[in-house]
Structure formats: C-alpha cells, structure tokens
Specification:
342 residues, Rossmann fold, seven-stranded mixed sheet, 9 strands, 46% helix
C-alpha cells in the first residue's frame, strides 16, 4: 500500500494506493480431466490390478472410494465361486468387458425382488453375470444365454460346472437378433393355446452386448419379457464419455458414445417403460414395463385391432359385474377372449 500526503493552505490531502491483487492462475484441466476416468481400464491394466481383479469400471470420485464400496459391501457377500470366476476373468486381455461386481450385486437383488425364473442374457463373455443369475434363480429356473463367442464362455464354464448350475443354462452361440426373433415367434404361437398368453414369457433380461443393436434388442424384449418384468442394460454411461464433449472423447470411445447417447435418448422418451439409470460399474439402466400399457400392447399386437377392442369391452363388462376395479391389465383381455371363444 502506498500513501501520498501533501498540504495546501489549511487542507491536508491523503491518497492511498492499494496494489492490484494478483490473480491466481486457474488450474485448467484438459478434456481427459473433465471426467474422472481411469484410462488404464481401457488400455490395459498393470499386473497388480490383474492379480487383485479390483480394476472394475467404477465411476466414483476416487479409486479409494470405489474400493471401499467393494470391500465393505460387495466382496463380503460375493459367493466364493463368483470370486474365482472374477479372478480368472481379470487376466483376460478384454477383462474390462466383465460385469462389475457392484452392478452384479444389484442385478441379484432385482432377480430376487421379481422372483425371476426364466431369464435372457445377451452378451455372456466369461459368464460372471450368468453364474450370478444361475445362483439366484430357483432350481427349475432357466437362462437363455446368447453370445457369438463360445471361447470366452468356456473360460468360465469349469466354474459354472463346479457350482452345479450348468443345467439352468441354455447357451446359444449366435447373433442375438435371430434368436430373439425366434423366441418371440414361439411365444406368439402360444397365445392361442395357453391363456393368458405370456405365462411362458421371460421374467428378466440382462443386456451387455453390441451397442449398435441396443434399441432393436429393446423392441423385442418388450414383447418377450412378462408384464412387470425387468430388463437391465449395461454400459449406459460408456466410461463416462456420455457427459464429455465429442472433441474431447478418445477415439476408442467415440462410436460407442454415439450409440449410447442415442439409446439413452430413445429410452428416456419411451412412454411404455419406467427407467432408472444407476451409476454402478459402467452405468446400468433398469427398465420396467408399465403394466397396463404393455398388457394392451401385447394383446393388440397378436390379435389385431378389432378383436382386441372387442375383448377389451367384454372383459370390462365382466369385471364390472364382478365389482372388480381397474387397472384391468391382462385379466380383462383374457376374460373377453374366453367369452369370444365360448
């Protein structure tokens, strides 16, 4: 600070000069720093991480925080054979494709909450999520597991056999869309033999496959999964790149980022589903079909408009006579269809 004083006649003049404060240089982050991404997860892992198998795709603020979640909440409840399969997968060159254990824990809870018995899995890899599902569903449960690469599946197959759950798994080495189309056709044929028609549908589906076909999978799964069932889509945050400017996105992530953004946008605009995007692993989106709307959509798709409208009206009349209140879901449709057959 500087002070200048002078006197003029009887007046004293004082001027204070304050130095301009130095501006602190703002720490700037490059594009890669705009998100807390561990690029080692995408470009390979060091030997220590491979040994510990704790490299999972967490998006938390720090690796220490993610490790805390795993060690206090996930690993203590993880079955020993799942841990064995996780450790085996950690040495694979594409280990980043494996389901994150914290995401797997939530999937197991969803399977239990929905009492899932018949499930679909698109994208198996070494089978971590597949084994987790087989552990969770009942003894007479079934999993239709679809993957183009049987070689990766066979890495985890010895552990699956050791667990004694191979009988629950129907592994299909194929592209997923033709298999889903065939399953859909099979269920359509049963609409006219078993009422209500979707009793032989699926309770749960887990999708961890090629992002370019996610929406096509979604369209088919909305017809395959039963009313009130759950579909879980993996990698819906795509290593956090969905929140990153395109010019800052590493080349290795760009195509997947574009597909994921498109899928997330379509899913958010779908009025027939309830959704929740959980920031676990690489992001998992949980989808539940709105019960009443899906019931109508299923029946209309199979039976056609005029028959559909007739069954609706007859079913409502029947329920009204029995003093039953809406939502009427499949019950009124089935009642109306049965009245038509009689």
């Amino acid at each position: 600070m500087y002070i200048i004083c002078w006197r003029r006649k009887k007046t004293l003049f004082v001027i204070f000069f304050l130095p301009r404060p130095k501006q602190r240089k703002r720490k700037t982050q490059g594009c890669a720093g705009s998100l807390n991404l561990n690029w080692n997860n995408l470009r390979g892992m060091d030997n220590e991480k491979k040994r510990s198998a704790s490299f999972s795709k967490g998006l938390l603020q720090s690796g220490e925080l993610y490790q805390y979640v795993l060690e206090t909440n996930v690993y203590p409840r993880e079955p020993e054979l799942l841990k064995e399969l996780r450790d085996m997968t950690a040495t694979h060159p594409r280990a980043i494709m494996a389901t994150a254990p914290d995401a797997g824990q939530l999937i197991a809870m969803l399977l239990k909450l929905t009492n899932a018995k018949r499930t679909i899995e698109v994208g198996v890899f070494t089978g971590y999520s597949l084994l987790l599902t087989a552990f969770t569903i009942p003894e007479d449960g079934k999993i239709v597991a679809i993957d183009m690469n049987r070689e990766a599946y066979e890495i985890g197959l010895p552990v699956i056999r050791k667990a004694g759950v191979e009988n629950k798994i129907e592994f299909i080495e194929s592209e997923a869309l033709p298999v889903l189309d065939q399953l859909l056709e099979d269920i359509r044929m049963k609409y006219f033999k078993i009422l209500p028609g979707n009793e032989n549908g699926f309770d749960f589906a887990f999708i961890d496959a090629d992002k370019i076909n996610y929406w096509k999978y979604h369209e088919r799964l909305m017809k395959l999964v039963k009313v009130g069932g759950i579909v879980v889509y993996d990698n819906t945050l795509w290593a956090g790149s969905v929140a990153m400017p395109e010019e800052c996105t590493p080349e290795i992530l760009r195509e997947g980022r574009e597909r994921t953004l498109e899928f997330n946008k379509l899913l958010a605009a779908d009025p027939l589903v309830e959704i929740s995007l959980a920031p676990l692993g690489d992001g998992i989106t949980i989808v539940c079909t709105e019960l009443f709307i899906q019931s109508l959509n299923h029946f209309k798709h199979v039976c056609g408009g005029s028959l559909f409208n007739y069954c609706i009206s007859q079913g409502i009349m029947k329920l009204n006579k029995e003093s039953q209140r809406p939502p009427f879901s499949f019950k009124c449709l089935v009642l109306g269809f049965r009245l038509l057959l009689v």
